[in-house]
Amino acid sequence: MQSRSSIEKALAAAMAAIDEGRGPPKLAAALRHAVFPGGARIRPQLCLAVADACGDDAPALSMAAAAAVELLHCASLVHDDLPCFDDAPTRRGRASVHRAFGERLAVLAGDGLIVLAFQTLGQGAAVAPQRLAPLLATLARGVGAPDGITAGQAWECESQVDLREYQRAKTGALFAAATMAGAQAAGAGAEAWRALGEWLGEAYQVADDIRDAGADPRWIGKPVGRDRALGRPSVAVEQGLSGAVQHFDRLVAGAVAAIPPCPGAGALRALVRHESERLVPLAWSSELLPSLARVAA
Amino acid sequence: MQSRSSIEKALAAAMAAIDEGRGPPKLAAALRHAVFPGGARIRPQLCLAVADACGDDAPALSMAAAAAVELLHCASLVHDDLPCFDDAPTRRGRASVHRAFGERLAVLAGDGLIVLAFQTLGQGAAVAPQRLAPLLATLARGVGAPDGITAGQAWECESQVDLREYQRAKTGALFAAATMAGAQAAGAGAEAWRALGEWLGEAYQVADDIRDAGADPRWIGKPVGRDRALGRPSVAVEQGLSGAVQHFDRLVAGAVAAIPPCPGAGALRALVRHESERLVPLAWSSELLPSLARVAA
């Protein structure tokens, strides 16, 4: 997808206000720790790829939207890792924010990143002010209640949970926000792009379940086997690794079919297929699954 | 100040999206618990009073800004009360959110309220889209890093803290956001209104310190004596109750003097004096202080 380095630059620019030397130094360090170095930056890349496919006419805004999506994602990771949730000791191959800076600064870093995301979006909208309100609504829906990440995480506190509803909110909602915001930043309608995001979000969640159930922790930079240990809903736990990989392939096909007509539809279809292959290599279905299944057992 | 009932209605309208029957029910209940019944709603009233003084020409937007300010305030209370910060058992006379719903839902409710605040602001801006970006910037500065509430709270994690810097971020910043947003919603410039908010924020923080040090817990709906017990910076602890009350009076005088020329300046000055008297009654200086000092000792 689009150049990783331009996304890193946009995130660095968004974080610059925090690094001006004012404010509490430990919070600034915790915020940096939460954002850099990043993971795959898959959501902002998706946002930019959709903007590009729609003939992006306001690159400053699409980049701001992409950075905002990633900052919201980082915020959710910091709060998900907290002791009262997953109590994850590591993230992206090093200490989670609360392990490195304490629980209080982890709560505040998450809060600060949510605020910074909307602030970044607002700044980017200087080039097209009339697009700000719809973009803001899209991102808020992707992370708030009752449909977004916050709601998804809160399903973990309910005794009755529908797995698809849970995953749609916890993962699909921000993917849908990424595709829709990409379209909106480029002046296109948002609704036609929701389905692509939801398919990809579900596929990504299944890929995460597969990796949690079967991958080497050194490879993914965080502990594995957490879903089973924490009794969390997981397609890989429910359907087994082989069933989960087949499910993943169906979801990717659904995503490709959901790309609406636009100037860059062909290139976007190829991109989605290519990135999906990176997430869950086709080879897994034949070569790796038997050994993965042993690890996960 | 302006009708409390209109603010409650605006907050109820903002919360309506959460109560649509979708989403996890416990999160919806925790969000309602965090917002209703409210405290004094002093920040949204201040926001509306300033908009009014500036000749409010977009009441839907000023009300949305006021509701957003209050939602951000509620979010900060929920997270401040968490076990890793104050571990406050009560708030506004009943169980704090984490005591009523558990720590996980308290973290998520705070997150959800921050998102809802920006969402509400965006919806209100339909009547004047060009005012959205500056309003968003003002609110984000009031709550984010390095200047806003999040930074203020994070100063509690530092070993070296300047008391005024801490209070300006923790309390003054959102008061300043309230006055500035009120002006911006009404189409006026923001900067001229920063000083009023900062003076009032500092005055309010001192009033809070005074009440924490000397008030009856039944009166203020939360435990008292926490600042001293937690070793938190407090003017009442540092200067004694009598000195703190004098300090409060000076700050209110500063606030009144800071009101910039505007159509409703006279009425606003009278309002600030009246509300300040409600916060820390003049009678305290002569009649109540000796007994308060005994309680606080």
What attributes characterize this protein structure?
homodimer, two-stranded antiparallel sheet, mainly alpha, globular, 297 residues, 2 strands, Farnesyl Diphosphate Synthase
Task: Explain how this protein is built.
The structure is a homodimer of 297-residue chains. Chain A is mostly helical and 297 residues long. Chain A has one domain: Farnesyl Diphosphate Synthase. In chain A, 70% of the residues lie in helices and 1% in strands. Chain A has 15 helices and two strands. A two-stranded antiparallel sheet of chain A has the order 1-2. The model of chain A has no long low-confidence stretch (mean pLDDT 90). At the A-B interface, helix 2, helix 6, helix 7 and helix 8 of A face helix 2, helix 6, helix 7 and helix 8 of B.
Q: Secondary-structure map with pairings?
A:
The structure is a homodimer.
Chain A: H1 4-16, H2 25-35, H3 42-53, H4 59-80, E1 90-91, E2 94-95, H5 97-101, H6 103-124, H7 132-143, H8 149-155, H9 163-185, H10 194-214, H11 217-220, H12 226-229, H13 235-258, H14 265-279, H15 283-296
Antiparallel strand pairs in A: 1-2
Helix pairs in contact in A: 1-4, 2-6, 3-4, 3-9, 4-6, 4-9, 7-9, 8-9, 9-10, 10-13, 13-14, 13-15
